[in-house]
Specification:
The N terminus is likely disordered. The strands form three sheets. Strands 4, 5, 6, 8 and 9 form a five-stranded antiparallel sheet that branches. A three-stranded antiparallel sheet has the order 3-7-10, with no helix packed on it. 21% of the residues lie in helices and 26% in strands. It contains one helix and ten strands; from the N terminus they run E-E-H-E-E-E-E-E-E-E-E. It is an alpha+beta fold. It has two domains: 87 residues, no CATH class; 98 residues, Immunoglobulin-like (Sandwich), CATH 2.60.40. Strand 4 and strand 5 form a beta hairpin.
Length: 203
């Protein structure tokens, strides 16, 4: 009976051998066959051994690669834990600027600094136990007509904020913008819209 090298699924005796081995025939699986022209009738199939050798070698290389990269994954996880803890110490991020328009059904002017022909605009600041956020950009201004007061929308600070301070500036016709004043302190959960009807008590 002759001994003939046999392999299956691309795994053959002349494939590169295991680099950790001293043998050049690690992948060889011998198949015993009857000699003569009827050899194919007596072939003994060893593909299960070939597949097992392939899987064993593949798993070995995979583990070597995994072990080599594990220290780098550990380092990345350490940095992620540090950054997550650092972000928890930060105050809320800057909220978007509110959108403002004249309030429907507002009171007739004048109402304090609400004067016909004046311009008004708004900004907001998110606040938490970690501190205040930067002041948002100012909204586009609108001109006060025959009625006072404004409706604000886009009140969406970071979810970590406990409150949202609303700032207002008014510029009389031909004048300068007033100093910003806080006209509302909204609590989380924040409303979809808010009507500013604040008139300072000294007016």
């Amino acid at each position: 009976m002759d001994v003939i090298p046999e392999s299956h699924y691309g795994w053959s005796w002349n494939d590169p051998h295991d680099p950790d081995s001293q043998s050049d025939k690690d992948n060889l699986v011998e198949t015993a066959r009857d000699s003569g022209w009827r050899w194919f009738l007596g072939a003994i199939d060893h593909k299960d051994q070939v597949v097992a050798n392939h899987d064993s070698y593949f798993n070995k290389i995979s583990k070597q690669i995994d072990d080599a990269f594990q220290p780098h994954r550990d380092l990345m996880q350490t940095w992620k834990t540090f950054l997550d803890g650092f972000h928890e110490l930060l105050p809320p991020s800057e909220p978007p600027s509110p959108q403002a328009c004249p309030m429907q059904g507002g009171s007739a002017v004048p109402q304090g600094t609400w004067l016909e022909g004046a311009d008004v605009k708004y900004a907001s600041m998110a606040v938490s136990q970690k501190g205040p956020s930067p002041l948002s950009d100012w909204s586009d201004s609108f001109k006060i007509g025959k009625t006072a007061f404004a409706t604000l929308t886009r009140l969406g600070p970071a979810p970590t904020a406990d409150s949202l301070e609303i700032y207002r500036q008014i510029r009389p016709h031909g004048g300068q913008w007033s100093d910003p004043i806080v006209v509302a302190n909204l609590q989380n959960p924040f409303p979809v819209s808010y009507n500013d009807t604040f008139v300072p008590s000294d007016w």
